[in-house]
Design brief:
Elements: E1 5-9, H1 13-25, E2 29-33, H2 36-45, E3 50-54, E4 56-57, E5 60-61, H3 62-72, E6 78-82, H4 87-95, E7 100-103, H5 108-127, H6 142-155, E8 161-164, H7 171-181, E9 189-193, H8 202-207, E10 208-209, E11 221-222, H9 224-227, E12 232-236, H10 243-255, E13 257-258, E14 267-268, E15 272-277, H11 281-287, H12 292-298, E16 301-304, H13 315-330, E17 336-337, H14 339-347, H15 353-367, E18 372-373, H16 375-378, H17 402-420, H18 425-432, H19 436-446
Parallel strand pairs: 1-2, 1-3, 3-6, 6-7, 8-15, 8-16, 9-12, 12-15, 17-18
Antiparallel strand pairs: 4-5, 10-11, 13-14
Helix pairs in contact: 2-3, 6-7, 10-12, 13-15, 17-18, 18-19
Amino acid sequence: MSSARILIVDDEPDLVELVGLTLSRMGHRTASAGTLAQAQQHLLAEPFDLCLSDMQLPDGDGLALLDWAQEKCPGLPMAIITAHGNVETAVRALKSGAFDFVSKPLDLGDLRRLVTRALKLRERRAETTGSYRGPGLLGNSPPMQALRELIARVARSQAPVHIAGESGTGKELVARLIHQAGPRADGPFVPVNCGAIPAELMESEFFGHKRGSFTGAVVDKKGLLQSAEGGTLFLDEVADLPLHMQVKLLRVIQEKAVRPVGEAQELPVDLRVLSATHKDLAQLVAAGSFREDLYYRINVIELRVPALRERPGDIAELALSILARLADRLSVAAPALAPEALAALQDYGFPGNVRELENILERALTLCIGERIELADLQLRARTGDTQRQPAIKPQPEAAGLDDQLEHLERDAIVRALELARYNKTAAARQLGISFRALRYKIQKLGIE
């Protein structure tokens, strides 16, 4: 990494000397200021790549300098030096826009890692120009433009981000884009579905274990948290974490350390935590099923992903992209959407959001005859006239196995048609009353050899 210019703001000469020596050994050039006013003079006089500021200054505090720098020196990463254990101060700094924080007494390893990550933002600035439009994040509606701008802003920070939104809106995609646009992009992105891990295995899966720590632990195992070292841990459906795991996760975030099952000491871990859920965490906190302290720790910055019904103008672009991807997978030409079909999609409520749109179009691609998807091919569910456009027909619990039964009948019908046509797919498709493309899709989907 090339040499950088870094400003150290602190009124303790010993700490300034320690930090300056550490940074010079990393190949960087430093300047120092002992007051808020001196720091402002330095920042106005010359460009800096990073500013490290103590929270307590003789004529103000680090947050005041942070607010001033965001207006006068936009894009300058700024880290706050806080008193040991003062989590509230650290959270306030992150909420105000600080890149990260480091606690006194300084751990030089933590300091070096923080500086390295912050300076990587210079490389990211060359790749992005204020907004991040990654693969899969489609749409030019105002909600999507605002979302992309937020992704670019929060990617520059190391603050925990909570991604809220309904099921099927693409919360994991947003988390991946935050990771890719930030200084940890070269590190791993580790997604974890908190609701899919059995409670009895959760601690071992998250924190890892030492050999012999319990029956069946025949080798040392690295946990998910350690697997995210240097990168990002994405906790999907974080609301499903049991209370005892919420306590342990809170300590990991605060102390930046993990203790594997059977290990005597905690091990340092360097990661950024992103989380998501379709549930209302504030309501869960009020109900006592989610810890309030963890809620405020993971929800330093909240980012909401809009529902599909809030951006109907994006549906045409989304639909064409999805159809192109599905057709490419089947090695067929992508069909067009009839105007009536597109209008119906734009008027539909999509309780399942983008995931439901993909499902509808996959089914329509199978059913359509010819080179165009018609309105009837969509088979949209009836809906009521309420403002939320929710479907009027809801699946009944007793029909849970119906899809499997239909798939079995469909498989038998296709196999019989292929046998009668001596495995001529064109003739078999004609006999079944479907297009050749639809038959190819069904053969692939059902795994018929």
